[in-house]
Every structure is written in structure tokens, then in C-alpha cells.
Amino acid sequence: MALRAEGLFKVFGRRPQEAVERLRSGTARDRLGPGTTAAVIDASFEVRRGEIFVVMGLSGSGKSTLIRMLNGLHDATAGRITLGDDELTGVAPARLRELRRDRVSMVFQHFALLPHRTVIDNVAYPLELRGVSRAERVAKATEILELVGLSGWGDKLPSQLSGGMQQRVGIARALAADTEILLMDEAFSALDPLIRREMQDQLLELQATLGKTIVFITHDLNEAMYLGDRIAVMRDGRIVQIGTPEDILTDPANDYVEQFVQDVDRARVLTASAVMERPRPVVAESAGPRTALRTMRDAYSAAAYVVDRDRRLLGTIEDRDAIKLVRRGETSIAGIVKRDAVTVDENAVLMDLFVPAVESKLPIAVTNEAGRLLGVIPRVTLLAALGPGPGATEEITLPQQPVPTTVIDQVLAEAEVAAADLKEVR
């Protein structure tokens, strides 16, 4: 675990410890009296190594106060913060400075660059504080500027850069510190929408390369859903829900969260694994054609998915092809398996499933990296998942018109009679 918060409180104003006890005993935040403000109330969470943990909430929810507690800019009124095995709360000032320098770096909303220093000197500043030589820190800063797409801009002043470029410098400076934990407080909210989305994409690209542990603060729900591996939703100083974007979108903890997420673009957040249903009908490659026909008949389907012994998807089989095998007396379906199954990865977002859904005769097959069949997505389920409300992704079963089975039954009966006759002859 990279970071852990346990029972955090931050109270501003008079008699903060008394306010904490009152809050613990059930006193409402707005009943603490004039001059006393509870910004963070009993916040507990863990941030895993290498994940982007987003703290989301409206103005006044306490999210910015919380992130400032995570690097010691605000002392906790009560509770504990640990960075790995290191205690952050209650340590001496010298130890706190050491932890901030070596364990945690921060990217601010309004860039916080040193205006009189060049871009490369801004990026190299954390290394300068550590006493790294000029040549070494310039080399490191040059490498990181290239990483964030600012190669060749090192000798410019911040005032000569656009807002998006200035924020890249802020990110580069945080990366130069080479800390495991990166705190980002509304880092992209001051940028124009197009630049903001570009910065979000670049952050994800950097994360895929560097694997930092990131705590990202935002009031923008779509940004939280796009960036976060997990999201903590705050309201009035309290964390009201922690979960993956899909958890929060499909199973909101209360009415507040449900209202918060009602306008989110579900097609860009929900993934195939979140809405898939149990796959059926499924036939093993080793099954005979009669078994395949019975499986399709029981599922009222004219086709089935074919898997190997490890449940890897091999393709599909149709009833008419299986009937031909039965009539010829063949016992293997291997020769008629069609390698035409339409598949999507379990992590594919719904936005990318519309075209495959139209092209597929069967529901879309959902597979993992190993090609294992995990589930299927019928078109009706795909459309229902895009509707509003937490129940939108619940499985919807529509009346199905049974596939005529007269021919199948006849062929199976003929095959059984033939098998009995053969047994008698033997």
C-alpha cells in the first residue's frame, strides 16, 4: 500500500479537538457553531501502488484540504497518514520536509512555476534542493521535458508558454523529483476543454510508462471517470463512496451520488465486463453434433459459441451445419466451427461496441487477454446500459421467439434410432 489515511479530521477555528469529539458523537457539521469549520470529517482510505486514485467533489466538499493533508501542508486535527511504512502525521518539521522532498510531489492548479527561472530550471528545481550537481540536474530535466512533449523549450520563461505547456512544466517538475507519490490538485481545471483532454490523455500515457501512485483531485465527474482507477466521492467533508468508475456509475451509494452521476457519458465509462451476461449457448469443441444441437435447442438459438477445454473461444457453430453432420453420422464438430465470432476485450468501453453489435449475428462475445470467453452482450443489453439510472445495466430479458426445432428433433430422433440399430447389430 502506497498511502493510507485513517480517521482523518481537519477542523479550522476555535477548539478544534472539542469539535472533533462532537463530530464523532454525531453532531452535524453545521452545528459546530460560528468560527469553527470542519473541512474533513473521519476520512479513511488506502491508495494502492501504481493506481490513479481520484478524489471528487463539489466546491466546499473538503477535497483540496484533504490533499494538502496528504503532504503535510495542513496538519491533521485527528487521525493518521502513512506513506508506505513512514508516518506523516505528528512528525518533527525536519522529518516532514524530508518526506515531502523524497516521497511526495505535487502539481498545483495554477502551475506555481517560478516566473524568473527558465523552464529547464523550473523542472530541475527539486533536484537543486537535493544538492544534485548542475550538469546532472539539467540532463535529468532535459530527459523529462522530452517525456512530456516539451523538448526544445528548456530555455524559455514560463510567461512565453501557453497554459497547457505551463502545466506540462508543472508535471515535469513533479516527475523530476522522482517521488513515488504524485498529488495533483485540480491540475487541469484552469485549462481550455480541448487542452484539458489532451493533458488527461498525456497523463494516462505517462502513467502507463512510469507507474506512479497518483492522487488526483477534481470537481469534474467525466474527468474523474476517465482518469480514475478508483474514485472517492466527497460531500460536506466526508467520503460517501469509494469504488471504481463502474461501481459508482452502476451502484451509487446514496441519492447524492446517484444525482451526481446521472449526466455522465456512460458510453465512455462503462466497459464490456460491466454489462456482459452469462454466455449461452456454449459448446465444447470435443462435443459431438447431437450435443451441440441439443444445447442450441435448449437455448432457443440457431447458433452456439465453441470453446476449448480452457474455455478459450474458438468460433461459432450453426444448427444447419450440425444437422448435416448428424445425418452423415459424424461425431466431431471440429470441421464446421466458423472462426467468425465477433469478440471484444473485457475492458472495451461501450462506445466501441456499437459497430460490432450490428455486425454480429450472435451477441458480442467478451473475452480476456488469453481469449477466454467471459460473457456476451446482446444488443438489447448494450442499449439498456446507456440509459439513465443505476438500474440501467441490470440484465434485461425480453420474450424470445423459439427457433423452430422440428427438424432438429427429427434429426436427433433419427440419429438415436440409428445408434440403437448399430448397437443391436454389434
UniProtKB/TrEMBL annotation:
Keywords, sorted A to Z: Amino-acid transport, ATP-binding, CBS domain, Nucleotide-binding, Transport
Gene3D superfamilies documented for this protein: CBS-domain, P-loop containing nucleotide triphosphate hydrolases
InterPro entries: AAA+_ATPase, ABC_osmolyte_uptake_ATP-bind, ABC_transporter-like_ATP-bd, ABC_transporter-like_CS, CBS_dom, CBS_dom_sf, Gly-betaine_transp_ATP-bd, P-loop_NTPase
Domain CBS per the UniProt entry, residue ranges: 276-332
CDD domains in UniProt: ABC_Pro_Gly_Betaine
GO annotation, cellular component aspect: membrane
SMART domains, per the entry: AAA
Protein family: Belongs to the ABC transporter superfamily.
Protein name: Glycine betaine ABC transporter ATP-binding protein
